[in-house]
Amino acid sequence: MTEQGKGIDPTVTARIDDDATDATLAEVAGRWVLTMTRPLPHPVERVWPKLTEPDQLRTWSPVGPDRALDSVGPATARETPQDEPENAEVLVCDPPRELVHRWGDHLLRWTLTPTPDGSLLTLEHTFDEHPGRGMYAAGWHVALAVLATVLDGHEVDRVVGEAAREYGWSTLRQRYDATLG
């Protein structure tokens, strides 16, 4: 079930199956950087609040911050209200182009680039453990599908934790483990 228990949403499932999310993995300064890109048919000004506003992040992202991520400085985040807070310090905020923040020991860099058809969202997720590559890529693939669905105006549940398994997370993880080496 999804976070709020309404079951699998076919709109999200279709997005997971059909929408293109390009992913690469590179070792940089002894850490791993997973880069994922997703074209969105929405202008950067529409997408930016989905990356920075807590109420909007909680509609699609596993990062639920305690404050808006719209300025440099301390912040914490939780995936669910029961989780312990994690460091979500904002390191760079250049609206509506770039947001860099921590997620515990990880680093997330979000970049929005205008395109003729809307925008290109690029996520660079930096982490230490190479075996996590498929797990993170699969999780972000599902989350980005929910983001695209929400941006299109559909009210759907956020898909986090165990709920992602019902949306094919395990198959996605295997695919990303294979393609990301």
Q: What would your notes on this structure say?
A:
The protein is an alpha+beta fold and 181 residues long. The chain has five helices and nine strands. It has helices at residues 10-18, 44-52, 54-57, 133-151, 169-179; strands at 22-28, 31-40, 64-65, 76-78, 86-87, 90-94, 98-103, 106-115, 118-127. The strands form two sheets. Strands 1-2-9-8-7-6 form a six-stranded antiparallel sheet, covered by helices on one side. Helix 1 (10-18) packs across helix 4 (133-151). The longest helix has 19 residues, at 133-151. It is globular, with a radius of gyration of 15 Å.
Strand content of the residues, in percent? Answer: 25-35%
State the share of residues found in helices, binned by percent: 25-40%
User: What is the ordering of alpha helices and beta strands?
Assistant: HEEHHEEEEEEEHH
Average pLDDT confidence is 93
Number of strands: 9
Return the structural class.
alpha+beta
Note the gap between the termini.
31 Å
**Describe the biggest sheet?**
6 strands, antiparallel
- The unreliable regions are 1-5
Q: Which sequence of strands runs across the widest sheet?
A: 1-2-9-8-7-6
Number of helices: 5
What would you call the shape?
globular
Rounded Rg: 15 Å
